[in-house]
Design a protein that fits this description.
Layout: E1 15-17, E2 20-22, E3 29-33, E4 40-45, H1 49-66, H2 71-87, H3 89-100, H4 104-124, E5 131-133, E6 141-148, E7 152-155, H5 163-175, E8 179-182, H6 188-200, E9 208-210, H7 215-227, E10 233-237, H8 240-251, E11 256-260, E12 265-269, H9 275-287, E13 297-303, H10 307-319, H11 339-354, E14 358-361, E15 377-380, H12 387-390, E16 397-403, H13 406-414, E17 418-419, E18 421-425, H14 429-438, E19 443-446, E20 461-462, E21 465-466, E22 479-486
Parallel strand pairs: 7-8, 7-10, 8-9, 10-11, 12-13, 12-18, 13-16, 15-16, 18-19
Antiparallel strand pairs: 1-2, 3-4, 5-6, 6-22, 11-21, 14-15, 17-20
The structure holds adenosine-5'-diphosphate.
Function: Catalyzes one step in the degradation of the inhibitory neurotransmitter gamma-aminobutyric acid (GABA).
Subcellular location: Mitochondrion
Keywords: Mitochondrion, NAD, Oxidoreductase
Amino acid sequence: RTMSSRQYASVIDKAFINGQWVSAASGKTFQVVDPATCQPISSVPDMNIDDVKLAVASADKAFQSWKHTTAKERSQLLRKWYELLVEHQQSLAEILTLEAGKPLSESLGEVGYGNAFVEWFAEEAKRTYGEVVPSPVKSRELIVLRQPIGPVGLITPWNFPHAMITRKAAAAIAAGCTCVIKPAEDTPFTALALAELAAKAGLPKGVINVVTSSRANAGPIGKYLCESPQIAGISFTGSTAVGKLLYEQCAEGVKRLGLELGGNAPFIVFAGANLEKAADGALASKFRNCGQTCISANRFLIQDTVFDEFVAKLRQRIEKLVMGDGKTAGCTMGPLINMDQVKKVEQIVEDAVAKGAKVVVGGKRALELGERFFHPTLLTGIKENMRCYKEEIFGPVAVCIPFSSEEECVKVANSTERGLAGYFYTGDIAQAWRVAKELEVGMVGVNEGLISHAETPFGGIKESGIGREGSKHGMDEYTYIKYVCFGNL
Ligand code: ADP
């Protein structure tokens, strides 16, 4: 274990396979940097297929006994894991801020949210009920069982390094599956800290394995997991491009697949809405995690009669954001995660400005703070030919577009191949119900900008994904339904 330079919680510099802290067989490592300072935090093993084979074998071996545990045993171990996660929430949040850059208060929020999945699935583990079906013929009894699908591969992104793992792993483990986790290359330390606490809680070796790798090895590792006959399913959260590739790779083995991909959330403000609350919700939805959230508001559609007033209110709130190193007290917005993200956000803003958009506030990098900081930005004068109109921005850039009728705005909101989240603010209850039903998304916030809970189903429609995580539906991905017919009774 190495201490980070600034006396933050210590990070683990080894991967976790079969209950052991291990290096890559090749001996290779890669460096992970703090996005706020661009200073190295530590290195972790740069694993490849040779290492993943061991992790898969370990998960497979563990599954042979884990699948025979009782739901109550799994529940109790998950509960212990949850209690340790709560006990260590401060250091987990510190590690998260160190590697992901988000303000410490936000990291504590993510840890609370992420921990809640472990608590939830500790409880749900006991409720994987089957069914007894009334038989249409005499002398038969018809039973439906739910059984764990087997070892699963979990591939997670850097924007929620804690919650994206617990949301998958806790559900898988509750169902009786074992897992091989491949965290994002930018944020491996949270994953390793989670595994350490899982082991401490008494989860048997091989139930959780964490394989760290650089970006260069992520492709081959993903392919191996998709194609390995020992892996029963894949759950992925990340970009649409990689999600589509995994879908393809899973086809050969007709493998279970859960996908949580990109969004392009509309955030609609109708004329009768409470504009103060709408602006608060807009700020929270857009600028949390520096805009790097798949359910972030991506397009603000504002009814023309309140457009100027809403823009002014949002601007006031944006100007109060305190950008800086997430480790400093009072900081409310951190840096972008990496230079690819910085370039993408910068190009999207430059493209809009070149095509006539107006920068109300922000619009450029904050180099005085560091390479990866981008000022929170508000753009108006948006046209359909601008990249920000269609693409997922994934950065601290709010674009406001006026509309005149409900029909028009719903049409614009739905004019995307994505369908993850959508938000709208209204004072009219009939409109609330109508628009909630019309939006082509998996999750809707009515007069609310932050809507995720462990208790509710998270997921999208259209190209935003397949399946649901969290909630009572979250274990479906990890269980098979088996019908058993008792005949000749
Ligand atoms: P982002 O563009 O936001 O980094 P990605 O979809 O590229 O999102 O990354 C999400 C996760 O997918 C990360 O853990 C990353 O290492 C992994 N990944 C990247 N490329 C591949 C791939 N070809 N196959 C499997 N996983 C991949």
